[in-house]
## 1
Amino acid sequence: MTDKSTGLIFDLADHGELHTRLCAALGLPAGLLHRRRFPDGESYLRFGQDINGRDVLLLCSLDRPNEKALELMFAAAAARDLGARSVGLIAPYLAYMRQDKRFQPGEAVTSTAFAKFLSSNVDWLVTVDPHLHRRNDLGEIYDIPTQVVHAAPEMAAWIAQNVDRPLLIGPDSESAQWVSAVADAAGAPFVVLEKHRLGDRRVEVSVPEVQRWARYTPVLVDDIISTARTMIATVDHLKTTGLPTPVCLGVHAIFAGNGYDELVSAGVARIATCNTILHSSNAIDISGQLADAVGKLTR
Ligand code: R5P
């Protein structure tokens, strides 16, 4: 149980403003965590307050997870060792959700292994729109209480405020469920494309008949923008339809490599993402919903 006199929120991944907003929304003070790297690359961590008997909330979005997982494990282990009453993880982006089955003999099913790793290190987890492929629920792989925040209402509100006559476009059939939720909330029509992934950085999409939407602004909506290939292929395809220049909306702004610059160069009216991963395209704040979800687990 987190109560206001014992809870502290530690920023483990330089979230900055999101950390400040979460502290304000939860009415909890920011914790002080000293982090640095030794010359050989090993991590040094020190809690700057006495956390004995306190609830420790670790804020750590898990994009670039290989760089962050060990520090997260060290922080959680130290918190337990120092007598923390509980250790919770707020990971607005949850990594390793895509390899959820063994496609080729011998492959590691990383989503299950990563879930075991986190479950053994923290007492609860809050995240935003995890990429549930073939799974229905995080409880299928996580052994700890979890809460999932859905960014759809915030995305819909942003669209309603910023886009004239929006036509929402989902990249593939998997996205249909939540693109339709955003569209419903925004009171906008939507279409869903067919996507064929030919490799890590090669994507083909087919856009259905969209001439009837000629006076609408296409709003491409996806949960993750990683290499941005999905968005770029869609933007390129839309150019052949005569629709206005599209707006691109993503929940999680990974933007691997030059993905962001390449998407800008593809010709888009605007790119907006949620602040689950710190990025210059962040325009949609989900701290309020994150705080509500933390409240549900710790009340
Ligand atoms: C895939 O299933 C996801 O919903 C996204 O469409 C995908 O992760 C986007 O990846 P990229 O930006 O690399 O095309």
Note: The mean pLDDT is 93.
## 2
Amino acid sequence: MDSPSSYSGHLVSYACNDTQSIGRRFDEQHPTYRNEYQRDRDRIIHSAAFRRLEYKTQVFVNHEGDLFRTRLTHSLEVAQIARSIARELRLHEDLTEAIALAHDLGHTPFGHAGQTALNNCMKNLGGFEHNIQSLRVIDKLEQKYADFNGLNLTFETREGILKHCSIIIAKDLGDVGQRFLDKKQASLEAQLTDLSDETAYNNHDIDDGLRYGLITISDLLKVELFRTQHDIVTKTYPGLDDKKLIHEVIRRMINVMVVDLIDTSRDNIANARLKNVNDVRNQKQKIMAFSEDMDQKKLELKQFLRRNLYQHYRVHRMTKKAANVIKSLFDAFIEDPNILPTEALEHCNLLKEKHGDKGVARGIADYIAGMTDRYAIIEYERIFNPRQLSFANLTT
Ligand code: MG
């Protein structure tokens, strides 16, 4: 792909360069006044799957409160962090933004609970993994362009979306699966976006957990990353109210992590003597990394969050209900695909022609994964609530 880009001159030689993209699955003319990764980003923002992120859960079910993160606000936070890092290291900001905004497009309703439930349903039918589903959404399921299915994004954006995958699945994924077979790395833009994702959710889960009352500031003082920044803030601003205190601590935590990531990665880049993006891909290990010290501290924080937040009984209750909704819907559709809405049934029938019963199951998984939290609950009501057994509901 050769096209003029005023942006590419700003990049380091080992960044992904929009003028040297490996390309799109279907050839297209270059965009006017935008580079190829900007076009990717714009297509993602205009997709239906992106709009649905607004009503999909991170940890807390969507309707629990308007102040909690959703997949949409999470994706925006990831993009913000990723762009800051890319700009400082002179990597391609637009590419990191595209990857960040698309990285969760394949998520089921009800967050990880939904993903686990759907994966269990698909256990002997090819499994379900949100990361691979994100790729499926942008490669196949978004259907609105005249010339192709999917969004026809560049290789570099698709590579970044596929963060991990098993060898068996990689064999079916063609060009973007190849690096898992060859034990190679993704671009620096992909690597840094992945670590930005982790930075975003570790920190905003603290914020949401405190807001929800599942964890307290005094619990968090056991965690070094939190305690260090908390001590700085309370010394600088004695008597600060909790709301401001929490924000001042968390913003410093994000900053400390991002600075550590940039400094460590910059050293790794220098040691690896990178010349071009192929040097990045041929590395045995990832170049973008936190320091060992920060990895230890992050591990402590993650363990704290797992014990005190993700495994809190109130979260468990929520996830149990969510898993029931997903499993019930899946079982009902498998038992009788004719209760699927017309478009979903047509999708299943197309997949059945190629893959038989597994194809039908995949089509049902696509339909369920595409639901928002509230749509899944409404669909459950429509199918299982006998009070909905009236003529009026024939229209839904
Ligand atoms: Mg994420």
Note: The mean pLDDT is 92.
